[in-house]
Amino acid sequence: MIRRYTKTAMALHWLIALLIVVNVGLAWAWPNVADESVRPLIDNHKSIGILVLGLAIMRLLWRLTHRPPALPTGYAKWEVTASHVTHWLLYLIMFAMPLTGWIMDSAWKDAATHPMYWFHLFEWPRIGGFQSLEPATRDYLHDLFGALHGWFAYALYALFALHVGGALKHQFLDREPELQRMLP
Ligand code: HEM
């Protein structure tokens, strides 16, 4: 018998996964784009990132109030532990990426003259306090959180590879209905 996640968990899983892939794609695309076309890509990246933050909050609340379906029996103990560690690190990254991005953007020297609009719908606030800092401190924090944003992105790539690699291993080598757990 296949034990599946709930429809809410599936929807959040695939929506967040898609948005993260698009956001990484945008970040990879903009170094290769003409200067005048970069701004819309970055603006959409910021809006998508904030959307991921909102969905990640809902997802964490779901996770804290639901027990995921039991794993098929027969997985090695180290695999079960590795999957739990990877899942919780992925939750951490779902928050770390948007938050470091938002902090970096809040400390940006041009933030005051470039308000952020969430998908052109309404102005999204910068985190208070950064703009009233000494310019040198503000710039330092901008660069620090920019670097963290980049390092967390590398962690994201590694976790993504482990997560997908583990799922495919169980699906095709162990011949367990693994992907079906997250599919309607
Ligand atoms: C799902 C959430 C997010 C993901 C997966 C993500 C991913 C990335 C990646 C992969 C890069 C390139 C890093 C590098 O190679 O150095 C990047 C850069 C950037 N991100 Fe994000 N990001 C997210 C959310 C955000 C948010 C919420 C903001 C701002 C509100 C933001 C603002 C930026 C900016 C301004 C850069 C360019 C930094 C620079 O090179 O100057 N990101 N992001």
UniProtKB/TrEMBL annotation:
An example Pfam family from this entry, by short name, is: Ni_hydr_CYTB
Q: What cofactors are annotated for this protein?
A: heme b
Superkingdom of this protein's organism: Bacteria
Topology class, membrane:
Multi-pass membrane protein
Output the InterPro entries linked to this UniProt entry: Cyt_b561_bac/Ni-Hgenase, Cytochrome_b561_oxidase, Di-haem_cyt_TM
| Keyword set, alphabetical order | Cell membrane, Electron transport, Heme, Iron, Membrane, Metal-binding, Transmembrane, Transmembrane helix, Transport
Q: Where are the transmembrane segments?
A: 45-64, 85-104, 151-168
Q: What is its main location?
A: membrane
- Does the record bear Iron in its keywords? yes
Q: Where in the cell is it found?
A: Cell membrane
Question: Where, if anywhere, are coiled coils annotated?
Answer: none
Start and end residues of each Cytochrome b561 bacterial/Ni-hydrogenase domain: 4-184
Q: Which family does it belong to?
A: Belongs to the cytochrome b561 family.
Instruction: State the name under which the record lists this protein.
Output: Cytochrome b
Give the lineage: Bacteria, Pseudomonadati, Pseudomonadota, Alphaproteobacteria, Sphingomonadales
